[in-house]
Design a protein that fits this description.
The protein is mainly beta. Strands 2-3-12-6-7-9 form a 6-stranded mixed β-sheet. The protein starts with a strand and ends with a strand. A hairpin with a 6-residue loop joins strand 24 and strand 25. The protein has 8 domains: 177 residues, no CATH class; 91 residues, Sandwich (Immunoglobulin-like), CATH 2.60.40; 93 residues; 90 residues, Immunoglobulin-like, CATH 2.60.40; 92 residues, Immunoglobulin-like (Sandwich); 70 residues, Immunoglobulins (Immunoglobulin-like), CATH 2.60.40; 75 residues, Immunoglobulin-like (Sandwich); 80 residues, Sandwich (Immunoglobulin-like), CATH 2.60.40. The chain is elongated, with a radius of gyration of 67 Å.
Length: 826
């Protein structure tokens, strides 16, 4: 019979002496291995180092315990005792060692091992398997590279007992132990109940917290089924497989489970052979009916008890049944309501859920018990709150409107119902307000009035119903709103404004509050106020309030009208009246002007009035304070006159800039740059005026004025320069000048033009001592002239000189010498 055992060594690193007294790390705590045993154990350390005891191992098989496990086998049928240890790890570095003691020795007198292997597989170059077999001849091997991991099997006799020490030197994991010899080991007891699921225990969750999955179980109720007909057998129950394997920590009943579906390990042990097996079953906690945790039972306060503000109402508890059962068949369960948890647990003091229940506090907690009808011990409990939310505060109100819609005497008008909301709700922002024409619709919440900003009443003094809903809890209260039509009125008014906004277009901005006094004139009620709207519809609905307003129609005819709504401090309409707007033009004047004041004289300036009769205006001049339409001034400066219409009171300013001026005085000498190809003349003057300049060439009476005092390309000759004041201050200044120049040609052909050639701008009085020399192309002197002569006529010794280029040399009497050429053209 081949028996394969599986062991798991968990490699905990502990102090040398830190081990559990009852762990199978020592011989005295050996695990008894039977023929049908399958164990999984944790080995914590080495316990007592048995190999350190004298004589416990042969010299050729020394090893130090690292992670050890002791097992004991009893032989019930003679044969060979052989086994194979196979590491679960596939690492080539796995190193399992073992030693076998016996037969029939005791742990305190083991003696030398009869079989031992401490071969190191990596060092010896062999596989990681080790054990006993029939082919080996050695009884011990090792350490290190010695041996192949196997030694000779043992010829065992029935009744003999052996101890086997297995040590995992590499500390990498568990191993499989397979017995391969012919000797037989005793069989373990068994679970006669069949399968472990038949042992599963189910109890209702009625201990401690009924919702924690923990309750009491009678573990021993499974003992008879497990034991069956076996004798010499004991049954113990354990919380872990390790405890069951080691026989530690046996559980007693009643046992309080630690969780739902807890696994219990049962140890079945033969008292004669000490062989045992471990099996399992589940502790199943029935949590009771899977009910839902109910939401708070919230209702709004009512007037059923005569008081809708005290927080006490009638609840029909049965309305919560379906929510709590959460889809469970109500015929399978009994659901009851209680005032306390203890009552719910015991099922006592049940509240009748078929009749209205009035809460005793607000909020109030109620407790629920749901019990299975088929298993009366299984039940669930929960709780929820009864909560009564308050109704919103709402005030019955009156809204008064003026009868200004269509027929102002029929009592029918337009109401902006929204204007009553603040009065109804005391201004609470967390309210939804809807209006209805009858009470039934108000209670139902539909249909409501939709045109609340322009609602037309159907009868005089009509009553509406207002539903005020608290947005935080959806509770509502209904109050009345009385619509009344006012027959009172105030005064129509008019206001005028000057078109003085900077653009004279007939439009301007009006401060409408200026009409308040006119509108309220003669009304003795200090609680009235006036607000303004652009049209009658806005005034009725109280929308688009205006305080300042720009007229929309240009002109002064009063075609623009706004509406003044007069109301009291409760927003009740007293009257709606018209306010006519007039825009008055400013005086029609020329706003800016200039005037010039000549030295030693006065100038008259006026208001610049363009239209209208001057006697209909008032005038005020600044800075001199005169009040006439025109004034005479003798000093330059800026003069402002304010012109005010005596009828409209509209004013406009005219600004006159008075600038002084004077005739020019020419500064001598005039700057003349002549005897050049481009002669220039520059005139310098004294005076405060704005001047312009001209030259009359050769004293002709033709002259053109220019702003610049500098003249260029001035022809030679005797001229007159003129300077005059642009503003008309006289007299005009003048000065004769002479500009020396040399003609470029002359044409002595008898036509009367350019018949001779002479230097211009020279006379007997001007540079009279100058001398002129004329040469031909060869440099021959043809003529010598003086400025007072008639000039050269183009002859030499009475002979006409031909057309050609001739040369001159002029020695001016001021010391200048000029040379050049000119052409004779015939």
């Amino acid at each position: 019979m081949v028996k394969k055992l599986h062991f798991t060594l968990l490699l905990f690193i502990l102090c040398f002496n830190g081990y559990a007294q009852n762990e199978p790390t020592d011989c005295i705590n050996s695990i008894i291995v039977c023929g049908n045993t399958n164990l999984e154990l944790n080995s914590n350390g080495v316990g007592t180092n048995d190999f350190a005891l004298p004589g416990n191992f042969p010299p050729d098989c020394a090893f130090v315990e690292s992670q050890s496990l002791w097992i004991k086998v009893n032989i019930v049928q003679s044969g060979t005792l052989a086994f194979t240890i196979t590491p679960e790890s596939s690492s080539t570095g796995e190193d399992y060692d073992f030693a076998v003691y016996g037969p029939n020795v005791t742990c305190n007198a083991l003696g030398t091992s009869i079989r031992c292997s401490s071969t190191n597989p990596p060092a010896a170059g062999v596989s990681t398997l080790t054990g006993l077999n029939d082919t080996e001849t050695e009884t011990s091997e090792g350490p290190g590279s010695e041996g192949n991991g196997f030694v000779r099997s043992i010829d065992a006799l029935a009744g003999e007992e052996y101890y086997i020490l297995i040590d995992n030197y590499s500390q990498n994991g568990g191993f499989d132990l397979e017995f391969t010899g012919t000797a037989l080991l005793p069989d373990s007891p068994q679970n006669d109940s069949g399968t472990s699921t038949s042992l599963d225990l189910t109890e209702c969750d009625i201990a401690t917290d009924p919702n924690d999955g923990m309750t009491n179980f009678d573990l021993e109720s499974n003992t008879a089924a497990i034991l069956g007909t076996q004798i010499n057998t004991i049954i113990t129950y354990h919380a872990s497989e390790e405890d069951a394997s080691l026989g530690n920590g046996a559980l007693t009943s009643p046992y309080l489970s630690t969780q739902n579906n807890q696994t219990i390990y049962v140890r079945i042990e033969n008292t004669i052979t000490e062989c045992f097996v471990v099996d399992t079953f589940l502790l199943i906690t029935d949590p009771g009916p899977p009910i839902a945790i109910p939401t708070p039972f919230i209702v709004c306060d009512t007037n059923d008890d005569g008081n809708d503000t005290n927080g006490f109402v009638s609840f029909l508890l049965g309305n919560k049944d379906s929510e709590i059962l959460n889809g469970l068949n109500p015929t399978d369960y009994t659901l009851t309501y209680h005032l306390s948890q203890s009552d719910a647990d015991a099922g006592t003091n049940i509240i009748d859920k078929t009749t209205p229940y009035i809460n005793i506090s607000n909020p109030q907690t109620l407790f629920v018990r749901v019990q299975e009808n088929t298993s009366l011990l299984c039940l669930s409990t929960t709780s929820f709150e009864l909560q009564v939310d308050p109704l919103p505060v709402a005030n019955a109100s009156t809204l008064t409107q003026c009868d200004e819609y269509n027929n102002p005497t029929d009592g029918i008008t337009l109401f902006n119902l929204n204007q009553s909301i603040d009065q109804i709700t005391n201004g609470n922002p967390n309210r939804t307000v809807t209006f209805f024409e009858d009470l039934t619709a108000a209670n139902m919440g539909a249909p409501s009035i939709t045109n609340t900003d322009a609602y037309q009443n159907s009868t005089t003094n009509q009553q509406l119903f207002v539903r005020v809903t608290d947005d935080t809890n959806n509770c509502f209260r209904i109050v009345t709103l009385d619509l009344q039509v006012s027959i009172t009125t105030a005064n129509n008014a008019s206001i005028a404004a000057c078109d003085d906004d900077g653009i004279e277009d007939g439009f301007t901005e009006f401060d409408l509050t200026l009409a308040n006094a006119q509108v309220l004139f003669g009304i003795n009620n200090p609680n009235l106020s006036v607000v303004y709207y652009q049209n009658i519809d806005d005034a009725l609905s109280e929308t688009n309030l205006i305080t300042v307003y720009t007229n929309t129609t240009s002109g002064t005819q009063g075609t623009d009208i706004v509406y003044a709504r007069i109301e009291d401090n409760l927003n009740q309409c007293y009257g709606i009246n018209q306010v006519t707007l007039f825009v008055n033009p400013l005086p029609d004047i020329e706003e800016l002007a200039e005037a010039f004041l000549c030295e030693g004289s006065n100038v008259t300036i006026d208001s610049g009035l363009q239209s209208g009769t001057s006697n209909n205006f008032d005038y005020l001049w600044s800075p001199n304070g005169e009040t006439t339409e025109s004034i005479s001034v003798s000093q330059e400066g800026t003069y402002t006159v304010s012109i005010t219409n005596q009828i409209t009171g509209c004013s406009k300013d005219r600004i006159v800039s008075v600038t002084s001026s004077s005739p020019a005085t020419i500064i001598q000498p005039i700057e003349i740059n002549d005897a050049l190809d481009n002669n220039t003349v520059a005139i310098n003057v004294l005076g405060s005026g704005d001047y312009e300049y001209a030259i009359a060439f050769n004293d002709a009476n033709i002259r053109t004025y220019q702003d610049s005092p500098i003249f260029t390309d001035v022809p030679p000759g005797f001229h007159t320069v003129y300077v005059r004041d642009k503003n008309g201050c006289g007299p005009e200044a003048s000065q004769a000048i002479s500009v020396v120049g040399f003609p470029k040609y002359f044409t002595p052909n008898g036509d009367g033009f350019h018949e001779t050639w002479n230097v211009g701008g020279i006379s007997s009085q001007v540079l009279g001592n100058s001398i002129i020399y004329i040469f031909d192309r060869s440099g021959k002197l043809l003529k010598q002239l003086v400025p007072s002569g008639n000039g050269w006529d183009g002859t030499y010794g009475g002979t006409l000189m031909p057309s050609s280029e001739y040369w001159y040399r002029v020695e001016l009497s001021d010391g200048r010498v000029r040379k050049g050429s000119f052409s004779l053209i015939r």
